[in-house]
Amino acid sequence: MSNLTHNHAARAHHLPTYHLIAAQVAAALAEDIGSGDISAQLIAAETTMHARLITREAGILCGTAWFDETLRQIDEHIEVHWQASDGDAVEPEQTLCELRGPARGVLTAERTAMNFLQTLSGTATAAHRYSQLLAGTKTRLLDTRKTLPGLRLAQKYATRCGGADNHRLGLYDQFLIKENHIHAAGSIRQAVENARQLQAQTFLEVEVENLEQLAEACAAGADRAMLDNFPLALLKEAMDNYGEQIELEASGNVTIGDLRMVAATGVHYVSIGAITKHVRALDLSLRYQEVES
Question: Which of 48, 111, 226, 276 has its CA 20 to 30 A from that of 166?
């Protein structure tokens, strides 16, 4: 029997390394600032500023480390005082943090810092919305690799903040044998055998399109089967016949409207690309309180 308590990507639950965050911020700032922020030069260098960051809508906060690092790379003299943390539920008009420091630096960093925070908060909020619909069921929500280029681990972290689990992080940390792999290898059995010979201990999932392929994946010793676009009745039949032998993951065109019905089949996991692919940024606003020269 497969280990149904397996949590393959638990390592992504933690904040990505400082070096990764710093590199992402540096790339974003280079894209925005280029040869220099000419508008900021209109302000006297000695001018300081106090600002308050609020959210205009309810959601789940995520991305404070990216926000802080953006300000740090621009000007280490900018102080940030947070009143909420990653993973916290926030309400409209709630103050998230206050900023104090050189006005030039605050204005230069503002857009990039908020881009990170609103995007990752939007991702966490979407994950929370989906995961809440699974409350009381045994089905766990998974994200996918359908992430924004360059922000894979950041969005994977955000989905965890929102209550989802991570699927594989990339092509390097888990086998996912799909239709073309099966076709090229000759069969599911052969593809699984090849994978076990290559890396025997690496988690292995097979995408299947029908019960016959599911039976073959189970017999071959796969750890999990991805049930690709299975209708509800077939999901239930798959669980009834194979749910005690192998982890089962529903995937493909699962919407927020039918999520509870999918979970009612008892399937162990459901993966939804829309959490990261269709992300809508949380509406944030930086309000300036006072300026001192």
Answer: 111
